[in-house]
């Protein structure tokens, strides 16, 4: 993969590489762990008195509510990115259609601003937090105090950023030694195989999410359960979501979803609750989508058509 600026637009090369339609993106969200290893003295013991079967954990240096806040903000950002991308061959990296990059980055910028604003709020309360801990745990405060960074050090421990990469094989310099060329070629072939597996996994990933949503709608309609507006909206959202991420030519699912979505236009809880004919119609359309999305034996055909267009050279 080659790193790139998020605003740079890559051009399609002449070999028809359809990975030019995607970029890889890695999100990093950092915070101050705010913990220090427990010591025997913390437990009222002397060195050597801790049984070997015990493993000392950590002592926390600031209240749990702050820790939960940063965890929630980080999870919100990662969930957003995961919902708008595919799993990638590298751990903690996602792949997204290049056409969606600007929108994804715009939302990440908003989440970054919120995260860093709360980090600044934490830094502003830093002395008060230390004083709170000193008053609450006076007996062990002398052993806690050395673990607190300065304010300037603390501020640098919080960060929120992402890196965007073009998806392509490594380039070999002209005149490289034969063994280097051979090693690069082997690595390229392995990466090509992994990328092709990713395509199939991405098609399955998209279909499974569609299947989950339409099955929920169908079962509610057939069982006579209440179908609220949020259930109907989840179908509308997944139709747009699938169309947005479907760069693989999975037309059967997209068309079936489109028919279901069209039938939902103008439909809400009030229009549906006493309309048995409409319930039956929507359940039938939802089942049609489920039948297509759940038929995974044609995934290899769809991914195969796309994979034939992939060339990392």
Q: Structural class, from secondary structure content?
A: alpha+beta
Q: What summary fits the major beta sheet?
A: 5 strands, antiparallel
Rg of Cα set: 26 Å
Distance between the termini: 12 Å
Principal-axis shape equals: flat
The number of helical elements comes to 11
Key features?
single chain; 313 residues; alpha+beta; Four Helix Bundle (Hemerythrin (Met), subunit A); 2 domains; five-stranded antiparallel beta sheet; two-stranded antiparallel ribbon; 11 helices; 7 strands; 10% strand; disordered C terminus
What's the layout of helices and strands?
Layout: E1 2-4, E2 22-30, E3 35-37, E4 58-60, H1 64-83, E5 86-87, E6 94-97, H2 101-124, H3 126-136, H4 141-144, H5 151-156, E7 159-166, H6 178-223, H7 229-245, H8 251-264, H9 269-272, H10 276-293, H11 299-307
Helix pairs in contact: 1-2, 6-7, 6-10, 6-11, 7-8, 8-10
Explain what you see.
α6 (178-223) runs antiparallel to α7 (229-245), α7 packs antiparallel against α8 and α8 runs antiparallel to α10. The longest helix has 46 residues, at 178-223. 55% of the residues lie in helices and 10% in strands. The protein is flat and about 70 Å long. By secondary structure, the protein is an alpha+beta fold. It is built from 11 helices and 7 strands. The N and C termini lie close together (12 Å). It has 2 domains: 2-166, no CATH class; 186-307, Four Helix Bundle (Hemerythrin (Met), subunit A), CATH 1.20.120. It has a 5-stranded antiparallel sheet. The chain has a two-stranded antiparallel sheet with strand order 3-4.
């Amino acid at each position: 993969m080659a790193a790139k600026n998020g605003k740079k637009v890559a051009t399609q090369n002449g070999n028809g590489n359809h990975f030019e339609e995607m970029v890889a993106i890695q999100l990093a969200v950092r915070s101050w762990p705010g913990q220090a290893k427990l010591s025997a003295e913390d437990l009222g013991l002397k060195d050597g008195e801790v049984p070997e079967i015990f493993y000392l954990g950590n002592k926390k240096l600031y209240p749990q509510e702050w820790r939960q806040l940063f965890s929630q903000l980080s999870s919100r950002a990662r969930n957003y990115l995961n919902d708008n991308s595919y799993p990638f061959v590298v751990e903690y990296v996602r792949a997204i259609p290049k056409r969606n990059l600007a929108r994804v980055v715009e939302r990440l910028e908003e989440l970054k601003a919120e995260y860093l604003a709360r980090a600044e709020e934490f830094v502003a309360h830093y002395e008060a937090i230390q004083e709170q801990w000193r008053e609450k745990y006076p007996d062990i405060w002398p052993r806690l105090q050395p673990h607190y960074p300065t304010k300037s050090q603390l501020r640098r421990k919080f960060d929120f950023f992402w890196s965007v990469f073009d998806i392509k094989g490594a380039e070999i310099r002209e005149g490289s030694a034969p063994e280097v060329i051979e090693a690069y070629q082997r690595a390229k072939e392995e990466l090509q195989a992994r990328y092709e597996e990713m395509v199939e996994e991405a098609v399955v990933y998209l279909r499974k999410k569609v299947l989950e949503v339409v099955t929920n709608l169908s079962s509610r309609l057939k069982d006579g359960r209440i179908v609220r507006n949020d259930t109907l909206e989840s179908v509308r959202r997944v139709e747009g979501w699938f169309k947005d991420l479907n760069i693989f030519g999975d037309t059967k699912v997209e068309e079936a979803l489109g028919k279901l979505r069209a039938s939902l236009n103008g439909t809400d809880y009030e229009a549906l609750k006493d309309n048995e004919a409409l319930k039956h119609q929507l359940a039938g359309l939802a089942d049609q989508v489920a039948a297509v999305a759940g038929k995974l034996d044609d995934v290899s055909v769809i991914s195969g058509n796309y994979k034939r267009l992939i060339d990392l050279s």
